[in-house]
Every structure is written in C-alpha cells, then in structure tokens.
C-alpha cells in the first residue's frame, strides 16, 4: 500500500510517501511556504524522486487542522484536485495528533502545540500508551498561561509553538516541561500517513463531501464581519 500524506497546516509544509508502513520519500519547505505552487512542487518532487506516479497511489491523507487558515485551505484545494484527477480514497488527520506522533514512543503525557497567534496556542494532550496515542483533551485555543495551569505532571511538548513559547513554558513548568527528544525524522505529513494507514486497512476512508477543516476558532475576517454586522444592527 502506497499512501501520500499532505500537510500545509503549519508553516513548514510537507509531503510524504509511505509504502507498507515505511517512509518511501518525504520533503518539506521552509517557514511560511504554504502557497499552492510550493505544495504542488513538493508533490512533484517526492513522486519524481520515488519513481511513483499518482495512479500508483492507494490513497491520500490530509491534515485538516488546526493550523494556518491559509495553509489549511491550500491543502484542501489541492487534495480536491488530486481526488478528482485520480478517484482515489482519502482520510483526514488531525494536525495536533500528527505532531504528537513525532514524540513517540513514550510513556509520558504528550502535549502538541502550535502558535495560534493572538497570544494563544492550538493545543491537545495525548497519552503515549506504548506505541499508541490516546487522546486526553480536544483541540483548543488557549493562552500559554492557561495551558500551564493544566500541566500537573512531566509532559513532553512537541510542535512549532515551542519556537514562540518554549522559554515561557519552561520557566513556568520547571521539571514538568520536557522538550521532545525523539529521534523521529518523520515530517508531519509522514506522521499523518502513519495514522491514516490503519484507516485504509480497515476501509474507514472519508467521502469528499465530508472534507471539512478544523479551524478551532473563527478567522479574523469572520470576526470583523460579525463585528460589522453587529454594529449595523446596533448590538
């Protein structure tokens, strides 16, 4: 089974090919590289260097958030095009769950975080039960201070949110803050494909009309529109 994982939900967009549970090839681009042409370039690069074409694939998986609003929309648009061109099945994967997989294997609690801007992080916690991730909390947008209040045991932190808030979390949590020390070299796209493999094996794929993006909170444009409409009604 050959699966393609697609992630454009974080600034470092990535594409991966997984064959029978092993990474066949993967690639990622630098910070803030989620434009559609860059993601398409990655797809072409990974396919070409692997000697694989789209029709050789058994399916796709896409990280559907939370994350960059623009990046999520880019990924969804590209996936729709690929599905229409190939008629292959697909699975949607939670971005934070794919991030948490990068910390495995571990017996510790794992907290995945992304910078959500507005002085908040997107976060979810998982339990590393052997090689299996068990979700402990839903995806949420929290202030780093609020997140610290919930951490009461040694916890492995993973995700690009550490770039912005790692020093703060360390200062507040002390010994309960454990930066990920995993030697995992899988990109987020590769981790997503690993999570998706079980779904494909059990034929639990997603219909195209079920492709939804997990924003967690409203976009700035939506908030401004709501504020404008409220002011019109004098609310």
The number of helical segments is 7
Could you say how many structural domains there are in total?
2
Shape: globular
CATH architecture of the largest domain: 2-Layer Sandwich
Main beta-sheet strand count, sense and barrel state: 6 strands, mixed
CATH superfamily assignment of the largest domain? ATPase, nucleotide binding domain
Tell me the name of the CATH class of the largest domain: Alpha Beta
Share of helical residues: 25-40%
Q: What are the secondary-structure elements, in order, as H or E?
A: EEEHEHEHEEEEHEHEHH
Low-confidence stretches: 221-227
- Gyration radius over CA: 18 Å
Let me know the number of strands.
Answer: 11
| Alpha-beta classification | alpha/beta
Q: Calculate the terminal CA-CA distance, rounded to whole Å.
A: 56 Å
Mean pLDDT: 89
Sheet-strand content, in percent, reads 25-35%
- What's the CATH topology label of the largest domain? Nucleotidyltransferase, domain 5
Question: Can you offer a commentary on this structure?
Answer:
This protein is of the alpha/beta class and 235 residues long. It folds into two domains: 2-96 and 185-219, 2-Layer Sandwich (Nucleotidyltransferase, domain 5), CATH 3.30.420.40; 104-179, ATPase, nucleotide binding domain (Nucleotidyltransferase, domain 5). The protein has seven helices and eleven strands. The chain has helices at residues 36-50, 69-86, 95-101, 144-150, 162-173, 188-201, 220-232, and strands at 2-7, 14-19, 22-28, 59-63, 90-93, 109-117, 120-129, 132-135, 140-142, 155-158, 177-179. The strands form two sheets. Strands 6, 7, 8, 9, 10 and 11 form a six-stranded mixed sheet that branches. Helix 2 links the parallel strand 4 (59-63) and strand 5 (90-93). Helix 3 packs across helix 6. It is globular. The termini are far apart.
């Amino acid at each position: 089974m050959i699966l393609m994982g697609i992630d454009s939900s974080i600034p470092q967009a990535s594409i991966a090919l997984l064959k029978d549970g092993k990474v066949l090839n993967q690639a990622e681009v630098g910070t803030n590289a989620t434009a559609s042409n860059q993601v398409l370039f990655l797809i072409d690069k990974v396919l070409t260097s692997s000697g694989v074409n789209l029709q050789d694939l058994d399916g796709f998986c896409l990280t559907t958030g939370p994350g960059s609003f623009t990046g999520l929309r880019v990924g969804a648009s590209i996936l729709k095009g690929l599905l229409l061109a190939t008629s292959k099945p697909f699975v949607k994967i939670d971005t934070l769950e794919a991030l948490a997989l990068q910390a495995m294997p571990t017996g510790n609690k794992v907290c995945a975080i992304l910078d959500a801007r507005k002085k908040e992080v997107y976060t979810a916690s998982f339990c590393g039960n052997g090689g299996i991730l068990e979700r402990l909390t839903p995806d949420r947008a929290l202030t780093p201070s609020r997140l610290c209040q919930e951490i009461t045991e040694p916890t492995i932190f993973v995700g690009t949110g550490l770039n912005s808030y790692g020093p703060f979390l360390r200062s507040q949590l002390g010994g309960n803050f454990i930066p990920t020390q995993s030697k995992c070299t899988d990109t987020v796209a590769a981790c997503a494909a690993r999570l998706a493999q079980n779904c494909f094996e059990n034929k639990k794929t997603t219909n195209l009309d079920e492709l939804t993006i997990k924003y967690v909170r409203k976009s700035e444009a939506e908030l401004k529109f709501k504020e404008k409409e409220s002011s019109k009604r004098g609310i």
